[in-house]
Design brief:
It is built from 13 helices and 20 strands. By secondary structure, it is an alpha/beta fold. A hairpin with a 4-residue loop joins β11 and β12. α1 runs parallel beside α5 and α10 packs antiparallel against α11. The structure holds flavin-adenine dinucleotide. The site of flavin-adenine dinucleotide has 33 residues, from α1, β4, β18 and α10.
């Protein structure tokens, strides 16, 4: 049966970071929405996430930073260390000059704290209705409305339909239909450990990346500094040789890291080996909009994590989309087209730069020598590489 509450309402598919940010942004501008999540509960995985100053300003505008701040760690420096020598290569200081330049700090948070703060804010807004166990299977357009159909047979009508349904988006399948995302051949292992179990505490309020041939290891503290988040990644040799199955397993992780210093190898003990994440992105392309339906976040522009910006982009998308819808009145398709136009190349730049940054941090041989030489010429207050990104957008 068709549930027709308010035909001006926006339907949001997916209750991840992008979906809940969209509902909040719409509410902030006085618009009603319903969020449909296919899982039986809203939630996020139990690891860390970095928020560039561009995302911090958007989260502040959404009104969630006040609740999130006690849990967030304000990063002092972003540091790159050579994993083969344990020598620092360069750093970006996130102190006063950084904060003034980008009008916000760099923070790291637990995903559940970020998602939880946004979800709580959604629950407090009467403009937002949240649904779980609702898997979108299709949608049709009827006049000026969009009808979303769910696996349980229910249908809902809204003025616009936003596909924030992630990397393997059903909405994308319908709107663009460009098949599976691209496997990068990179595999990540994660682990969160109590801070007092961490042996080397030199960099306790920094975000540190040890970089080496085909590998890197990221470390930063979370939850007011009580736990340490650890992420180990390998760019699989097996995958590069054309072996598309079972690549990047714990054996390959250990083998790739065997060239690193004992200190770096020891840190591998902080990540779980029983689960890993195979990394994907997509070639950037426009065409996110069909009629009054549009894609957002990973559904529109999945990226590798090397700029730590996938979720930040989803949050920016949410703010821009809500602004376009507010301005457009009943011209929904024009608003969605304007949102796509505004977001397409910025998101594409993140996707492409993330790949390039991945190649740079994983370099070996002469490329590694050149990288280290060039990085040595930076100062901690050299921001040009990230200026376009961290300056962000206006709400
Ligand atoms: C190793 C790693 C590290 C990362 N680090 C960072 C970082 O430091 N900073 C950063 O900004 N980003 C980071 N990212 C990227 C970030 O995690 C993603 O970009 C972000 O979570 C995408 O959010 P989303 O809401 O678009 O999609 P998702 O989080 O995937 O949410 C999609 C939601 O839609 C639901 N769904 C799916 N299909 C349907 C359907 N048919 N019907 C209804 N619901 C559906 C899903 O259950 C899910 O809840 C990282 C990614 C990885 C892999």
């Amino acid at each position: 049966m068709l549930k027709k509450k308010d035909p001006r309402e926006v339907l949001v598919i997916g209750g991840g970071i992008g979906g809940v940010a969209t509902a909040l942004a719409l509410a902030r501008r006085g618009m009603r929405s319903q969020v449909f999540e296919k899982a039986s509960e809203f939630g996020e995985i139990g690891y860390g996430i970095q928020q560039g100053p561009n995302a911090y300003r958007m989260l502040d505008w959404l009104g969630v930073m006040k609740d999130l701040e006690p849990q967030a760690v304000f990063t002092r420096n972003l540091i790159l260390i050579d994993a083969l020598t344990d020598r620092e290569l360069t750093r970006i200081s996130c102190g006063d000059v950084f904060r003034k330049h980008f009008r916000a700090p760099y923070t790291v948070v637990h995903r559940r704290d970020l998602h939880g703060a946004m979800l709580e804010a959604c629950r407090k807004r009467e403009e937002i209705t949240l649904h779980t166990s609702k898997e979108l299977v299709g949608f049709t357009e009827r006049g000026k409305s969009v009808i979303a159909s769910f696996a349980d047979g229910s249908e809902y009508e809204g003025a616009a339909l936003i596909g924030a349904d992630g990397l393997r988006s059903r909405m994308r399948e319908i709107i663009i239909g460009d098949g599976a995302p691209r496997a990068a051949g990179h595999v990540t292992y994660r682990g969160v450990v109590p801070f007092d179990q961490v042996k080397d505490r030199e960099h306790f309020d920094d975000m540190v990346i040890w970089i080496g041939p085909r590998l890197h290891f990221v470390q930063y503290r979370l939850r007011g500094g009580t736990v340490m988040n650890n992420v180990a990644t390998v760019a699989s040799e097996k995958f590069a040789r054309g072996e598309r199955r079972d690549y990047g397993g714990p054996d390959e992780l250990a083998e790739v890291f065997s060239r690193t210093t004992p200190h770096v190898q020891e840190m591998l003990g902080y990540v779980g080996k029983d689960k890993n994440w195979v990394l994907h992105d997509r070639e950037p392309r426009p065409g996110w909009t069909r009629g009054n339906a549009v894609l957002l976040g990973d559904a529109a522009h999945p990226t590798l994590q090397y700029l730590a910006q996938g979720a930040c982009m989803a949050i920016e998308d949410a703010v821009v989309l809500s602004g376009m819808l507010e301005k457009a009145g009943s011209e929904i398709n024009a608003a969605l087209q304007a949102y796509e136009k505004e977001r397409y190349l910025r998101a594409a730049r993140v996707t492409i730069t993330s790949r390039i940054f991945g190649d740079i941090i994983h370099a070996d041989g002469g490329a590694r020598d050149l990288r280290n030489h060039l990085l040595a010429q930076r100062t901690p207050e050299t921001f040009w590489e990230v200026d376009w990104l961290y300056r962000g957008i206006e709400a």
